[in-house]
Amino acid sequence: MKMSELGEFGLIRKIKQQSKGRSPSTLIGIGDDAAALSLSPSKKLLATTDMLLEGVHFDLSYTDFYSLGWKAAAVNLSDIAAMGGVPRFCLTALGIPAGISVEQIKEFYKGFNTLCRKYNVDLVGGDTCRSERGLVISVTVLGEVEKKKMLTRAGAQPGDLVFVTGTLGDSAAGMELLTAGARVQGPGSRVQGPGSRGKGAGFRVRGSGARGEGHVSELRTPNSALLLKHLRPVPRIESGRKIALSGCATSMIDISDGLSSDLGHICEESRVGAEICVDQIPFSKDIRKAADHLKTIPLHYALSGGEDYELLFTISPSKLKKYLSLKIVSTSIGSIIAGNTMVLINNGKRTVLKPKGFNHFSGQGRGQ
Ligand code: ADP
Ligand code: MG
After folding, report:
1. What are phi and psi of 204, to 5 degrees?
2. DSSP state, 279?
3. Is any atom of ligand 1 closer than 6 Å to the C-beta of 213?
4. Which of these, 42, 69, 224, 229, could form a disulfide with 203 (CB 3.0-4.6 Å)?
5. Which residues of the chain fall below pLDDT 50?
């Protein structure tokens, strides 16, 4: 159905129907001039907005609308995770160009709501406009965190250990494969919840005959996990909460722009330096398996690629024993040092690590 047949208010009604089910804290949701929300008095309010622009953040030639909705929610939820918070409410503002159908917007909200439901986040409002050039998505998430448990980019101290959740570089490697023509195919492109996503079971990657570039048509390895990591990242809400509540961490950030840039933010805000050991950086078996199909080495994707949405945090040495006993899935990759330099240690050789991740105005990579 064309957007013009349904109209702005018809579309908002559909979005409202599709996003039912809300917590008692949503006093007024979609439908009035503003949402009315009640928050726990003992907590701090967290607020974050991220935009996703067609041509800058995503490409509709390889992104399906379900994944786009999922990712729009994920990148914002990840910012709440990075503060150690609990996401509660969200708002979505869309600029929709001619040519986008009602069904596509419905798919977008299916993906978006899947992630919101998993984390009990209510969609409480937004805005809907026509766009003259490209699809524009802006999502705002409100969350909360216990006053004494909030983690920020400031607070890392020399001697702290640097940890990351998950593995690094997968999303950027996945984007490269997608750009080259690889596609994820699920059963009827139907969707899987984060819990059942597993290791991409049921998905396979094929080379795209039409747009395939030499090496991609030979891509037969089932590394759809890399593509999915780019299309449907899972925000580390549970880990973020455990890390914050443990009281063992001194700073935290999510990796949206690449390890070099995001570690750079921690160093800048905490006024410290860091040493990262290359051989401790966690890489997935998927990125290693796909190495022959990638233009560069996994380390490059980890340092400069971005969009992994893993958490990067620092643990005080006095709390290390306690932290390890909590068994939060994570890897230590180095430590914080005095000064303001980031150093990469590779086979005993030390080189200065410069922030090389995504920057919207320097034309490098892609990220938030
Ligand atoms: P107003 O003109 O007062 O801004 P709108 O007609 O834009 O009102 O919106 C009506 C209601 O629908 C509001 O509650 C608004 O938050 C909600 N809304 C509008 N667009 C969206 C959207 N894309 N997603 C969720 N809620 C939306
Ligand atoms: Mg409005």
Report:
1. -140, 160
2. G
3. no
4. 224
5. 187-222, 365
